[in-house]
Design goal:
alpha/beta; five-stranded parallel sheet; two-stranded antiparallel sheet; 13 helices; 7 strands; about 60% helix; elongated; binds zinc ion
Length: about 325
């Protein structure tokens, strides 16, 4: 998927609006400060007059007058700053506050797209259409442990479904808390309908709110893109590759439900490997067990996952079924 012209225009207008909003906020802060500390307004007027005469002196080449003016200006600015903080305002209260200080809300740094612009593109192309509504319902605040039982014991690990879910929740919280400093990946596997997708949604919501770029694909959507790119040489799919390799978090949901062949298995390897090389995090959820994963996608995909991912196994009675049953009463 590439940006259409109208989508690009939409983003540019969004940045223009952001600049304007921040300028308006600054204007209102000035009005507020002037009303509360009129002396600051007088000093500001004085600063403008002095700056004007400084410019005149500069033009006339009057060096001595210039340096004394500079000194006077500095003193007034310091005085103004002192009055501002004494009145309880933050020292930068009368400066322009950027939404993204890195690109100063232009979207570009040295003619290259800023991280905030890349995130805006990904939000527009994927997140807004795919996720927004789901994330309102499925997040850490709505996550409940009441569906998990102490009596349902996983024969493979000997742990109860409740213990497994608590461990998984802890890992997911830690994943979010350390996301900007540490590189982690998660594989969620186990029974159907026990909250694997739910957990990946919880993480997605937190990270989107922290301004990270997140792409969520079901495995079939992802493999469709691989196939389109290979067989149709679709220019939109080319664009997708860059987003898929480069977004801060890629979530691949329901791996194993798509049609798999040796081509898609090798594409999956390239994708997972590329993201590990770029130290970009990935979360995979699957109903397959580890042996099935190895058989379906090859040994090298399997070893990449087991060496670079935290593997979490969730078990239990099907939560979706339980929820449906509960709704009937
Ligand atoms: Zn930026």
């Amino acid at each position: 998927m590439a940006l259409s012209n109208s989508q690009y225009d939409h983003l540019i207008r969004m940045y223009e609006k952001r600049q304007l909003d921040n300028e308006n906020r600054l204007r209102r802060r000035f009005e507020e400060v002037y009303a509360e500390v009129p002396q600051i307004k007088m000093l500001d007027n004085h600063i403008s007059e002095l700056s004007l005469s400084q410019a005149r002196k500069m033009l006339s080449g009057d060096e001595t007058a210039l340096s004394s003016l500079k000194k006077e200006l500095q003193e007034i600015i310091q005085h103004k700053q002192m009055l501002l903080t004494a009145a309880g305002f933050a020292p930068d209260y009368l400066e322009l506050h950027y939404t993204c200080p890195d690109c100063k809300d232009t979207g570009y740094i040295d003619n290259k797209k800023c991280h905030c612009f890349k995130k805006a593109i990904i939000d527009l192309l994927y997140t807004q259409s795919n996720l927004q509504e789901i994330l309102e319902k499925e997040n850490f605040n709505t996550c409940s442990l009441e569906y998990y039982s102490n009596n349902h014991i996983d024969p493979l690990t000997g742990r109860s479904s409740l213990t497994a879910m608590k461990t998984a929740l802890g890992t997911c919280h830690n994943f979010v808390d350390t996301f900007s400093e540490e590189f982690h990946n998660i594989l969620l596997y186990g029974d159907t309908g026990v909250g694997k997708t739910f957990l990946s949604h919880c993480i997605a919501k937190e990270l989107i709110e922290q301004s990270f770029s997140v792409i969520y694909f079901t495995a079939s959507q992802l493999f469709d893109i691989f196939a389109k790119n290979r067989f149709e040489k679709d220019p939109d799919a080319q664009m997708d590759y860059e987003h898929i390799y480069d977004c801060d978090l890629l979530i691949i949901d329901d791996l194993g439900t798509e049609f798999t062949n040796s081509f898609s298995a090798s594409q999956l390897f390239v994708c997972l490997n590329e993201r590990i090389l770029r130290r970009k995090s990935t979360i995979i959820s699957t109903n397959l067990d580890l042996d099935e994963l190895k058989n379906l996608y090859s040994e090298r995909v399997f070893s990449r996952i087991t060496s670079a991912y935290t593997v979490l196994r969730l078990t239990g009675d099907d939560i979706r079924i339980q929820k449906k049953l509960m709704n009937k009463f």
